[in-house]
Amino acid sequence: MEGFFVTHLPELTAELKQYDKVNDGFVKLEQLYTAVKTCYGTAVEEKEIAAYAKPYITDGSCNYFELLDAVSKAADNDDKILAEILNMISLSAESKVSLHKFRVALSKLRPMQSCQDILKKTGGKMSVEEFKKKFSDASKKARPATKIIEEDGRDAESKASVKAIICPSVLSSDFAKLGAECQNMINLGADWLHMDVMDGHFVPNLTIGAPVIAAVRKYTKACLDCHLMVSDPEQWIGDFAKAGADTFCFHLEAVSDPDDMIEKIKAKGMKPGIALKPDTPVEKVFPYCDKLHHVLVMTVEPGFGGQSFMWWTMPKVAALRVKFPALGIQVDGGVKTHTINACALAGANLIVSGSGIFKAEKPGDVISIMRKSVESRQPDA
User: Fold this and answer.
1) Average pLDDT score over residue span 265-290
2) Does 246 qualify as catalytic in the annotation?
3) Angle, nearest 10°, between helix axes 9-19 and 29-40?
4) E strands along the chain, which residues?
5) Any residues with CB less than 8 A from the CB of 378 and at least 6 apart, and which?
6) Residue 159 and residue 176: Cα distance in Å, rounded?
7) For 81-95, 187-201, 266-280, 349-363, which range has the lowest pLDDT when averaged over its residues?
8) Is the pLDDT score of 130 beyond 90?
9) At what angle do helices 64-89 and 9-19 cross, to 10 degrees?
10) Helix (H, G, I), strand (E, B), or coil: what is residue 347?
């Protein structure tokens, strides 16, 4: 709820002032509900609003001056958190820090605002200097990476290493010569072929299905890594297994019984994965991780092309790596040579890249750069 208030502070302020005819800073509780629903939508429950505003409510009225002041301070702190995330993921390769302490500290930096709202306000820029120009006050308050690690890190360190797996996203290939394109990626050093399956419902775009998986399987023995952005993933388990899929990664947001899905995928001989949209809290996947082959953290909103890499999702990757040291952690969306280091630092090891590899002048060099980035950020590197 606080994230909503932070994001909609200007609109909410204007709405509440309309009800305060005497400018004494108080509105009726019903007026607070109406103002919030006007900004947020009618789906929000009044009990949620009341719970968040409770410290400022007395005898059926809300001191919205104090409420908005608290929200304003929270907004300032959220920008500070973004600045600190940037400071962390911009840490140079030469910096000698404990990877575990780094990831523990990074995992605690969680912005409250939605990923799309952060994208709008930052423009997706990943430069510390650009951020300082736009958010100078927040940047001044932000701690440097070394101080964040010192204050929020933890010493108990896992020595588990994970293998770097580079997965070119076939959606960026030339479909007129799909078989040759896929085989070329493997020849250039790629490990898996990432297959983006979209149904036009769960996400707005419509892409490939099981018949394309079956066609690609004839050209390669490489792992066909299938990411299903579909409303009813259970419907397709049998078809994808028959087509030759090696992994079957479904969205947590699309199913009601993840445990049942995992068992059905395994029963068909495929490796199960769960994907998370950028705004889905990472803790929601924790109960299933011990049963999974990998977790996919989306670093753009699934189904939309041409988006900027959402660097503020890296704390989710770090949280997974700290809690599950040997888990496969995949990142997908905007991953290129200038963003791979942030992913590797946070703990990702399954690297999906579409245009970053397929559209590169020398795709083989990009695959090598990404692999080295992940390998150099292992506990024993």
Assistant:
1) 96
2) no
3) 140
4) 26-28, 57-58, 61-63, 165-168, 192-198, 223-229, 247-251, 271-276, 294-298, 328-332, 350-353
5) 99, 161, 162
6) 45
7) 81-95
8) yes
9) 180
10) coil
Q: Which two tokens stand for residue 219?
A: 């050209």
- Predicted pLDDT of residue 2: 67
Backbone φ and ψ for 251, nearest 5 degrees, come out as -85, 130
- Categorize the per-residue pLDDT at 278 as very low, low, confident or very high, splitting at 50, 70 and 90: very high
Catalytic option among 79, 117, 246, 332: 332
Dist. CA 65–CA 80, nearest whole Å: 23
- From CA 348, how far away is CA 267, in angstroms rounded? 27
- Can you tell me the distance from the alpha carbon of 16 to that of 9, in angstroms, rounded to the nearest whole number? 11
Residue 321's pLDDT band (cuts 50, 70, 90): very high
- Which of 78, 117, 196, 225 is an active site residue? 196
Whether residue 287 contacts residue 241, with contact meaning beta carbons closer than 8 Å, is answered with no
Share of the chain above pLDDT 90, in %: 76
- What's the rounded Cα separation, in Å, for the pair 36 and 282? 27
CA-CA-CA-CA dihedral for 282, 105, 370, 162, to nearest 10: -70
User: Which residue did the predictor score with more confidence, 43 or 12?
Assistant: 12
Q: Picking from 123-132, 154-163, 219-228, which range would have the lowest pLDDT averaged per residue?
A: 154-163
Closest CA to 65 of 8, 13, 18, 1: 13
322 or 305: which leads in pLDDT: 322
* Strand order across the beta sheet in which 57-58 lies: 26-28, 61-63, 57-58
In single-letter form, the type of residue at position 356 comes to: G
Per the prediction, the chain carries an average pLDDT of 92
Strands (E), 199-269: 223-229, 247-251
> Which residues sit opposite 169 in a β-bridge?
194
Confidence bin at 73 (pLDDT 50/70/90):
confident
Under 8 Å between Cβ of 315 and 335: no
The edge-to-edge listing of strands for the beta sheet with 192-198 is 165-168, 350-353, 328-332, 294-298, 271-276, 247-251, 223-229, 192-198
61: three-class secondary structure by DSSP: strand
pTM of this structure: 0.86
User: Does residue 196 carry a catalytic annotation?
Assistant: yes
